[in-house]
């Protein structure tokens, strides 16, 4: 229970902190709407205008991934710049438990994008919100967010080992959108991308949310696989985080930007 | 000429913090290439347009990342690193100092666009007629220069507004939508086409598509002239804004305020 409280309080704190950044707010407010508009016009122009709701949901999931990728990938670097990394590491808790709320917060702020793209599609482009399984949708979106937050911990812990992690962040946005089938169906991609997509929780998260919207398949297995892969990422991320912390303490490089 | 070219190159080396190999490859080469693949596969799936449309369009668009952010960096990083005052103390013409900074970014944009076009064509099997190549390089260069002038205009806003990165990010997102690079212009509403016509890249993409389709440079000429006009217009706007905001910053003693 204390563990849940720590994560919940930490997540709330970091969501509040992110909500104070004008850049974060405006980017998170505006860019997903542009992406959703682009998706709407593309689907309208194409042969599948009936998949507009799918396009809006896909654009929302893309924005959630962007938020997790940039927020989690740079989570530790951001704490360094703010001068709060030492405080976090001084806390008598495992480092992963202190960084996980940050990565979860980036996924939670990405939820806005999902809501905004659906509202934008409904209000501006009159896309009917005919969700096939509303209950499954209401469950699958927060579960997908939680899964991506757990995946974010692995990103946060491994990217800190990579020099110029920003370059990796910038290079990973589109590939993950692509192989996860967020907007482009996986079936049209080359066969070798299949195993890569299948190993990513983003693929199963997008699939679960899409299935809840279209009713095209069973939601729960996809969601289960998403959470299982994410949990494995959480464990791996925690292990890497402990290793990084020990190494940084031993080498006295914790606060070095 | 020395001030324009040498000054521009020195400023590029000093200010463009994406010029490190890892950052350059990850952000400016791999990112745009995957953007091209993403839209090409989406376009295939939806039957909106063929691969050529997306390869050429996204190759032209790929220059925007270096040019728009570069133009912004060229002005606003001076302020961020506390060197803006030194630049403005110089007795040389400001317009030349700052416009010269657009040139290396345009060169950078051209390099990225050529790489993206080549890699995209090889991966997706596009054959470009050899006769189209000189015109295509000219078109990509004009598009990059026009885009760098647009970036400089946004950079000028950095003298007035604190968070200019926000404006750059939003502008890039809007360019993806409004320039007709990923959604054929015929499928966009009239007002979006009008706005897109005033943005860099729109006309360069049109010219590049004509050239790849086998048209002559003369046929692509009108679109190329429109792109040049847009670029010159942004260069003028950037010069005017830099003058206005510099004067205002001096008057309000807010030159180095972050």
Could you tell me the mean pLDDT of chain A? Answer: 86
Q: Please tell me what the overall shape of chain A is.
A: globular
Q: In terms of per-residue confidence, which ranges of chain A show pLDDT below 50 for 5 or more consecutive residues?
A: none
The Rg value of chain A, from CA coordinates, equals 18 Å
* Percent strand of chain B: under 5%
Largest sheet of chain A: none
Task: Please tell me about this protein's structure.
The complex is a heterodimer of chains A (257) and B (258). Chain A is mainly alpha-helical and 257 residues long. Chain A has eleven helices and no strands. Chain A has one domain. Chain A starts with a helix and ends in a 6-residue tail after the last helix. The model of chain A has no long low-confidence stretch (mean pLDDT 86). With 258 residues, chain B is mainly alpha-helical. Chain B is elongated. The two termini of chain B are 32 Å apart. Chain B has one domain. At the A-B interface, helix 2 and helix 8 of A face helix 2 and helix 8 of B.
Element layout with pairings:
The complex is a heterodimer of chains A (257) and B (258).
Chain A: H1 2-18, H2 22-45, H3 52-73, H4 75-82, H5 85-90, H6 95-124, H7 134-159, H8 165-179, H9 193-199, H10 201-214, H11 219-251
Helix pairs in contact in A: 1-6, 2-3, 2-6, 3-6, 3-7, 3-8, 3-10, 6-7, 6-11, 7-10, 7-11, 10-11
Chain B: H1 2-15, H2 21-46, H3 51-80, H4 84-89, H5 94-100, H6 102-124, H7 133-157, H8 164-178, H9 190-197, H10 202-212, H11 217-252
């Amino acid at each position: 229970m204390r563990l849940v409280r720590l994560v919940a309080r930490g997540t709330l704190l970091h969501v509040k902190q992110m909500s104070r950044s004008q850049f974060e707010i405006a980017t998170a407010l505006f860019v997903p709407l542009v992406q959703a508009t682009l998706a709407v016009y593309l689907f309208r122009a194409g042969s599948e205008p009936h998949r507009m709701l799918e396009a809006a949901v896909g654009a929302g999931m893309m924005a959630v991934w962007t938020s997790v990728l940039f927020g989690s990938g740079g989570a530790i670097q951001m704490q360094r710049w703010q001068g709060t990394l030492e405080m976090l590491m001084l806390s008598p808790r495992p480092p992963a438990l202190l960084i996980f709320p940050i990565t979860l917060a980036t996924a939670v702020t990405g939820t806005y994008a999902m809501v905004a793209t659906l509202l934008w599609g409904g209000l501006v482009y009159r896309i009917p919100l005919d969700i096939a399984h509303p209950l499954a949708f209401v469950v699958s979106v927060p579960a997908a967010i939680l899964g991506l937050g757990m995946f974010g911990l692995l990103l946060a812990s491994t990217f800190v080992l990579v020099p110029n992690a920003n370059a990796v962040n910038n290079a990973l946005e589109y590939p993950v959108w692509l192989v996860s089938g967020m907007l482009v169906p996986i079936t049209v991609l080359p066969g070798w991308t299949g195993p890569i997509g299948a190993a990513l929780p983003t693929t199963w998260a997008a699939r679960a949310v899409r299935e809840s919207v279209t009713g095209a398949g069973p939601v729960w297995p996809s969601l289960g696989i998403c959470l299982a892969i994410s949990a494995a990422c959480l464990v791996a991320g925690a292990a890497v985080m402990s290793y990084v912390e020990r190494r940084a303490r031993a080498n006295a490089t914790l606060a070095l930007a | 000429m020395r001030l324009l070219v040498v000054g521009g190159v020195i400023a590029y080396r000093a200010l463009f913090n994406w010029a490190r190999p890892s950052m350059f490859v990850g952000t400016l080469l791999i990112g745009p290439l995957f953007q091209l693949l993403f839209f090409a596969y989406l376009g295939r799936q939806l039957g909106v347009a063929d691969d050529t449309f997306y390869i050429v369009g996204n190759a032209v668009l790929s220059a925007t990342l270096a040019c728009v952010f570069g133009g912004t960096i060229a002005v606003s990083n001076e302020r961020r690193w506390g060197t803006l005052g030194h630049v403005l103390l110089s007795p040389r013409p400001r317009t030349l100092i700052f416009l010269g900074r657009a040139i290396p970014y345009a060169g950078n944009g051209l390099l990225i666009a050529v790489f993206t076009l080549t890699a995209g064509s090889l991966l997706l099997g596009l054959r470009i007629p050899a006769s189209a190549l000189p015109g295509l390089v000219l078109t990509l260069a004009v598009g990059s220069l026009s885009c760098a002038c647009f970036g400089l205009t946004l950079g000028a806003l950095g003298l007035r507004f604190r968070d200019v990165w926000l404006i750059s990010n939003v502008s890039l997102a809007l360019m993806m939508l409004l320039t007709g690079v990923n959604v054929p212009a015929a499928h966009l509403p009239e007002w979006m086409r009008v706005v897109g016509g005033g943005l860099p890249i729109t006309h360069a993409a049109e010219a590049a598509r004509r050239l790849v389709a086998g048209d002559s440079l003369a046929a692509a000429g009108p679109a190329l002239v429109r792109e040049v006009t847009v670029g010159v217009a942004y260069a003028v706007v950037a010069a005017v804004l830099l003058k206005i905001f510099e004067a205002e910053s001096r008057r309000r003693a807010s030159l180095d305020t972050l």
